[in-house]
Amino acid sequence: MNARDLRAELKVRRNEDGFTLIELLIVMSVMLILMTLAVPQLLKLRKQAQETSAVQSLRTIGQAELQYNSAYPANGFSCSLATLGGDPKSGAPTAQAAQLITPDLASGQKAGYTFAISNCTKVTVNNQDMYTSFEITAVPNSIGKTGDRGFCTDENNTIRYDPAGGTNCTQPIQ
């Protein structure tokens, strides 16, 4: 093999190695188009999952309120998420730490929503304060990003929502 043939063979091999810049740009363009279509749908599904989690968490807190009322009838309902929570390692449940909900829910933050118990009605019976009603709210941490709707329930466990993401809940969940 002479030097001329060797150079020609090396030139052919150089042209066959790897992808051309145009081929890489085409592949990247296709990937960007696919991502443009997929990412908004993924964000929408995530938001729906967080709203579903918020509704389920409201149900859990509502059930915990009924259990609390049954376990501590002199207190009535709880007007605090911390009271419904509590660390099981700290001993037996008490009226101040009933251990009825998980610590993440008792903290008031879960799955992009903030939970609170408010609008508690208190009466005094035999020098003992008793809560006879409450409202549980769940509002998105970032409206439009972590959720679109706010949710509310009360001692009747009817869950309603606010389409604006606040606590003016007028629409029933279907």
TrEMBL record:
Its main location: membrane. It is a single-pass membrane protein. It is found in: Membrane. The keyword Membrane applies. Keywords: Membrane, Methylation, Transmembrane, Transmembrane helix. GO terms for cellular component: membrane. The keyword Transmembrane applies. It comes from the Bacteria. Gene3D superfamilies: Glycoprotein, Type 4 Pilin. The chain crosses the membrane at residues 21-43. This is Type II secretion system protein. The lineage of its organism: Bacteria, Pseudomonadati, Acidobacteriota, Terriglobia, Terriglobales.
